[in-house]
Specification:
Keywords: Membrane, Transmembrane, Transmembrane helix. This protein is of the alpha+beta class. It is 51% helix and 24% strand.
Amino acid sequence: MTKKVFKFITVDNVEKEEAFLEEMANQGWFFSKYASLRYHFEQGEPAEYTYCIDYKEEAGDEEEYLSLFEDAGWEHVYAYPILSGKWMYFRKAVKEGAPKEAIFTDDASMIALWKTIRSRWTWFGGSAILMLIVVGIATLLASAYLIGSIFTFAVALFLIVLYGKMYIRITRKIKLRS
């Protein structure tokens, strides 16, 4: 049996996404893929897993990268391509009495990840916002459809707030680890 769950989690909340996937596994729903803001799960016996998410830039070394994780006992679950890279989802069964494991064991690696994510998403968000503002101005100047321009500017404002929040949260995470 499969299950799809709509959930909107921004890139600055990777920990929240990992906790969500772990809770679903505890209920017997195992993450299989992500598409169209929906998490897809396969049903099974409830089990305790640690999920970890990494952002892998396209570098042509994916086999070596995946092998490194496999050698450390991590199972690659899914790769979600976006912004010249992929969100890589891994899981590992929790051993009874053992502490929760993580794929990033040092601050330098985590800081590098957060800086990459911040850079990619700031560029992407800034481009989208700029494009919406240009379209809004063009719509306002070229026609009498004031409502269309207002809607476009409202979407741009929403994205400014959303990407601003993500930028600030990621910057705080970097500073906490520095």
